Amino acid sequence: MVKKIISSLIFALILFFSLTVKSYSQIDSLAVEILDSMSNMIGELETCTFRFSVEYDILDDNYGAITHSDAGTMYLKGPDKFLVEKKGDKGHKKVFYNGKTFSVYSFDKNNYATIPAPATIIETIDSISQAYGVEFPAADVFYPDFVDDLIEVSDKMIYLGLTMMGPKECYHIAGVTGEFTYQLWILTEKDSFIPFKLSIVYDKRPGKPRYSALFYDWKLNPELDDNMFEFTPPAGAEKITILKK
């Protein structure tokens, strides 16, 4: 009886590990190593700035997937300050976070809204995004658990080798989840492992809409004055209320 129990346990363990190996064999260890290097580099930054260009599809009943775009600049000062200015199909806006309040100013409408915010960048991005639907370009790659979360949702992930993205040499990584396929291009220059481009195709949605973001002109640990994250309403600007989604 004891031998049968031991044999059953051994069989169960063998089955468990064989299934685990089969599952993780679809995740390229070199891809994970490169992503970990990128995440570690970002985690060590005290400040940074970068410019971004985003394209995203919105399905139209008459013309199919129409590509829209935004472009702008982001300034980050950890752990509790950021400033974003962007211009595109959703208008010209500037977003301020100073560790206490979150403010949005519309240049097109000359109005603004200010609401209380949590004490850190990550908490603020989470709460504002969930409550109000405000988008933050490149936010995912700044999360401490980004790599673990990506592995968890990925059915497959592979490192495709070095490639040229315009004039830039990049590590090229691709993956598949139950909802979308994705690609990441990470700069090789100076061993910096800086994210350069992200591309997503939502295969399960009608029309398979795409999202892509290019991040460039990075400056690592520049001097950023705290005052730049403080919002002062322009003369004549109207105060409004942000509606929760």
Looking at the structure, what is the overall shape? globular
Q: What is the structural class?
A: alpha+beta
Q: In angstroms, what separates the terminal alpha carbons?
A: 61 Å
- Strand residues, percent: 35-45%
Helix content: 10-25%
**What count of structural domains?**
1
Give the topology string: H per helix, E per strand: HHEEEEEEHHEEEEEE
Q: Can you tell me the residue ranges where pLDDT is under 50 for at least 5 consecutive residues?
A: 1-24
Number of E strands: 12
Largest sheet: 12 strands, mixed
CATH class: Mainly Beta
CATH topology: outer membrane lipoprotein receptor (LolB), chain A
Which CATH-level-2 architecture? Clam
What can you see in these coordinates?
- The chain is an alpha+beta fold.
- It has a single domain (28-239), classed as outer membrane lipoprotein receptor (LolB), chain A (Clam), CATH 2.50.20.
- It contains 4 helices and 12 strands; from the N terminus they run ααββββββααββββββ.
- The chain has helices spanning 2-24, 29-43, 121-132, 146-153; strands at residues 47-60, 64-77, 81-88, 91-97, 101-106, 111-116, 154-165, 168-177, 181-187, 195-201, 210-220, 238-239.
- The chain has a 12-stranded mixed β-sheet.
- The longest helix is centred in the N-terminal third of the chain and has 23 residues, at 2-24.
- The radius of gyration is 22 Å and the shape is globular.
